[in-house]
Amino acid sequence: MSGKRYSRQRELIYQCLLHTNQHPTAEMIYSWLKPENPNLSLGTVYRNLNLLSEEGIIVRMPFPVERYDAVKEPHPHFRCRKCGGVYDLEGLEYDHGLDEEAARCSGHEVERHEVFFSGICAHCVEKH
After folding, report:
1. pLDDT tens, position by position, 36-81
2. How confident is the model at residue 3 (pLDDT cuts 50, 70, 90)?
3. Sequence spans of domains, the chain
4. Domain 8-69 belongs in CATH node 1.10.10.10
5. Which CATH class is domain 77-127?
6. Burial class (CB in 10 A: 0-12, 13-18, 19+), 68
């Protein structure tokens, strides 16, 4: 999984991300894993998420509270401004041409772009 020394806790955190579509925060991951892993600390979760992100194994999403995604392929997200939930937007294609155009216009080496939509999610709309 990683070029760093194997860590059981890192593997638990990574597997947790692989098996959810909620784009969790570090605190969410900690609360899910702590009951079965009493020696796990919140600091350990943060350190391992940072390491996994720096190694390109997961994606860190820069919202007011950072969220994480194990799906590395570029894809758009939607963030609800009421509940703070983050959702994948299925059916929207990633536009690689936009990366190429940005590189051509700027002279930068563009690796990828991120698309974040915001508004009110369907669940919050139903509640109100």
Report:
1. 999 999 999 999 999 999 998 999 998 888 999 998 888 899 999 9
2. low
3. 8-69, 77-127
4. yes
5. alpha beta
6. buried
